[in-house]
Amino acid sequence: TFSNSGALGNSSSALTVTNTAVTAFNGLSGAGVLTENASGGTVSVAGVNSSFSGSTTLTTGTLQIANDNLDPLGTGALNLNGGTLLASTAVTTNSLVNAFTVGGNVTIAGSNSLTLSGAGTLSSGDTLTSTNTGTTTLSGNLSGAGALIENASGGILAISGSNNSTYTGTTTLTTGTLQIGAATNALGTGSLALNGGNLQSSLTATVANAYTLGGNVNINGSNSLTLSGAGTLSSSDTLTDTNTATTTLSGNVSGAGALTENASGGVLAISGSNSAYTGATTLTNGTLQIGAASNALGTGSLALNGGNLQSSLTATLANAYTVGGNAAITGANNLTLSA
Q1: 276 pairs with which residues across the strands?
Q2: What are 291-299's contacts with CB under 8 Å, separation 24+?
């Protein structure tokens, strides 16, 4: 442990840590380079670091942010080439402002909230995975073809860059919560794999990514969210809406997976051309709103177990249906159930 602050000279100076135990710094300054490259080891950065302008590289081992002071890791570049990034205290009042690159498979772990507000570049073939059971926030703009994964039971990965349109990588939700924090382009233009967990938005937002359902996923929260990309629902998997605002599936839906609306006070609006959707649709609570003249619910069965069924236009539903609860047909537009 270095109990006093340390100066890392000029940009040609480099300090590399291969210590397999804990190396702790209490304040850094200068323009030198700091590298953590110790399998099983930890570099912990505490103290005041706003005068440190050098780059920090994580190759293997753990880089631990141990302060929430101004510029917790200084202002230089952050190279995430491997290993684990975590915070031993909540790093939210003062975020990591460092521009970062993902040049390997890196995990954001721990149990404390951590905000990365610098611009992030994700290299093709590399993955940034969050297993942090606190909230990990990527509030800077993202770019590149690398992948993002949220896989933290009880944790949240919040993505809120104002312009992630040049992020073309795949985003995967396995467990925990993936929170949309930008009105458009939060997840760029790549595919979205919904394999488990919760999808929600912190504001009214549209996600244009093509998505696949590969597990049981819940759309929750209290803000309106539109999925305008094409959706493929795998057999035996269910997409359940418990969002108390309006969830809209405006892209074409296909596959044999299931859709369930179960949001008291919420609306699930389905408005794509969905003739290739063969899964079952269930209305348990809330409102199921038909937004296409035909084939809105594909060809699968319709279970009316509660809630309200309505249409936003003149529409026909050819689905075979069952009434398994007290359901109401509401609204002000003509709706034909032809089965």
Answers
A1: none
A2: 291/248, 291/250, 291/315, 294/318, 296/270, 296/271, 296/272, 297/270, 298/253, 298/254, 298/274, 299/275
The CA distance from 21 to 19, in Å, is: 5
Nearest Cα neighbor of 266 from 243, 282, 295, 250 is 243
Contact 247, 219 (CB under 8 A): yes
Token pair of 143 as six digits: 């770019």
**CB neighbourhood size of 262 (10 A):** 19
pLDDT tens column, 3-49: 556 677 677 788 999 999 999 999 999 999 999 999 999 999 999 99
How is residue 40 written in tokens?
A: 């099983």
Amino acid at residue number 262: N
Looking at residues 253-262, what average pLDDT do you find? 98
pLDDT digits (tens, 9 = 90+) for 277-308: 999 999 999 999 999 999 999 999 999 999 99
Its pTM stands at 0.97
* Across 234-245, average pLDDT: 98
Tokens of 322: 């069952």
C-alpha distances out from residue 258 to 39, 105, 249, 263, 324, Å: 44, 33, 13, 16, 17
| Single-letter residue type at 334 | N
Q: Which two tokens stand for residue 245?
A: 């605002």
pLDDT at 274 over 90: yes
Sign of CA dihedral 226, 119, 145, 87: negative
β-strand pairing of 258-270 with 253-255:
unpaired
Contact between residue 244 and residue 263 where contact means Cβ atoms under 8 Å apart:
yes
| pLDDT recorded at residue 3 | 55
Q: How confident is the model at residue 132 (pLDDT cuts 50, 70, 90)?
A: very high
User: Could you give the 3-state DSSP secondary structure of residue 321?
Assistant: strand
Region of residue 84 (left: phi > 0; alpha: psi -120 to 50; beta: else): beta
